[in-house]
Design a protein that fits this description.
The protein is α/β, with parallel strands linked by helices. It has a domain at about 55-225 and about 315-335: Vaccinia Virus protein VP39 (Rossmann fold). The chain is about 25% helix and about 15% strand. It has helices at about 15-20, 65-70, 85-95, 110-115, 155-170, 185-195, 280-290, 305-310, 315-325, 335-340, and strands at about 55-60, 75-85, 100-105, 125, 175-180, 200-205, 215-220, 245, 270-275, 275-280. The strands form 2 sheets. It has a 7-stranded mixed sheet with strand order 3-2-1-4-5-7-6, sandwiched between helices. The chain has a 3-stranded antiparallel sheet with strand order 8-9-10, with no helix packed on it. Helix 5 (about 155-170) links the parallel strand 4 and strand 5. Helix 2 crosses helix 9 (about 315-325) and helix 7 (about 280-290) packs parallel to helix 8 (about 305-310). The longest helix is centred in the middle third of the chain and has 18 residues, at about 155-170. Keywords: Methyltransferase, S-adenosyl-L-methionine, Transferase.
Length: about 350
């Protein structure tokens, strides 16, 4: 004998509940008139709520790699707060961006009161100094020594905790990204991951440009794999002037020291010009990092200064790839122009 089905009694008004527009959507107020096929004349669906412009806090900002990446993604940056203490980097930021960036000084000065005065922050990014964490440095002090620059990681974590709590209370979108060298002790990596409550992803600049620069990135961005890029086969020659010839296919990791450009047992320079060995031009190095040519050509900055600033910067294509998920979540520059254009 077939079993009699029992149907759950629906609550009163359930149809009205499911037919309501989503939260934040404006209801359609036009005339509702269906044709013979059941289509509603003049109805184009509920209006989507406008996307917000992104507000960013960048710690250990350097020469503004985060802002360069966001500009390449065409995101409308409503506010960009920069925490940096290197006077030459600050000078360069002011030279390029004037009032577009608000300088906040050292991270230690960012108290809860100061952070609260910034208002909504949608993206926190930064990479604390890695010189005292890198295996390349035999005299490294590590993460836990208060006199070590590596100890500044805990300042990032403190600010991250405050902004995460603030975003939950205020109910706005909040994302974060933290970067550091992949050449660190396993214990240091595990301690950082424990504080940040996630494991890092590994990204290398060689997936985009002919240069090695392997880094760890922690964050609450969605996990994504980098698709094979046409740039995987690009030779260093692509970034050189026509009268200069590359002696290597790809560069090693470029640091603040010009000696890092040498490769192989014979420590050869990467370029020859009219048969004479040569270092990379600083403009060629800027392009390898993803910056426009002459980006570091600021007031009273020598070539050595510019090379040191670049050696501490992020590789822009890597950061663009990691942050591209923000594009459908926040307003773009094109959408901002459409908002102010006459109808």
């Amino acid at each position: 004998m077939a079993r009699e089905r029992k149907y759950k009694k629906r609550k009163r008004g359930y149809r009205k509940h499911f037919s309501k527009p989503k939260k934040g959507c404006k209801p359609y107020k036009g005339l509702v008139k269906a044709d013979e096929d059941g289509f509603i004349e003049g109805f184009c669906g509920f209006e989507n709520p406008p996307l917000p412009a992104i507000r960013v806090l960048s710690l250990f900002d350097g020469i503004g790699s985060a802002l360069v990446a966001l500009d390449k993604l065409n995101l409308d940056v409503e506010a960009f707060y920069s925490s940096e203490i290197d006077e030459k980097a600050i000078k360069l930021l002011r030279f390029h961006y004037h009032d577009r960036i608000k300088m906040l000084g050292p991270v230690q000065n960012l108290t809860e009161g100061k952070l609260a005065s910034l208002g909504v922050i949608n993206l926190l990014c930064g990479g604390s100094p890695c010189a005292e964490l890198s295996l390349v440095n035999p005299a490294r002090k590590g993460l836990n020594d208060p006199s070590s620059s590596g100890h500044l990681f805990f300042e990032y974590h403190r600010i991250l905790q405050y902004l995460t709590k603030s975003a939950k209370e205020k109910g706005h979108q909040f994302y974060w990204m933290f970067e550091n060298t992949s050449s660190m002790e396993l214990g240091t990596k595990q301690q950082m991951s424990s504080y940040l409550q996630c494991s890092p992803v590994v990204r290398c600049a060689s997936q985009f440009v002919p240069m090695k620069r392997k880094r760890f990135f922690w964050g609450n961005f969605p996990s994504q794999s980098i698709e094979e890029s046409d740039r995987d086969g690009i030779n260093l020659q692509y970034f050189l002037k026509p009268y200069r010839e590359a002696t290597v296919h790809s560069m090693p990791t470029l640091t603040t020291n010009s000696h890092s450009q040498r490769s192989g047992r014979e420590q050869c320079l990467p370029v020859t010009e009219e048969g004479v060995p040569s270092h990379l031009y600083i403009t060629e190095q800027e392009q390898l990092f993803g910056f426009p040519s002459h980006y570091t050509d600021g007031p009273n900055l020598s070539v050595t200064d510019r090379r040191k600033l670049l050696g501490k910067a992020w590789c822009i294509p890597v950061v663009v790839d990691l942050l591209k998920f923000l594009c459908p979540l926040f307003k773009t520059k094109l959408q901002s122009k459409a908002d102010i254009s006459p109808t």
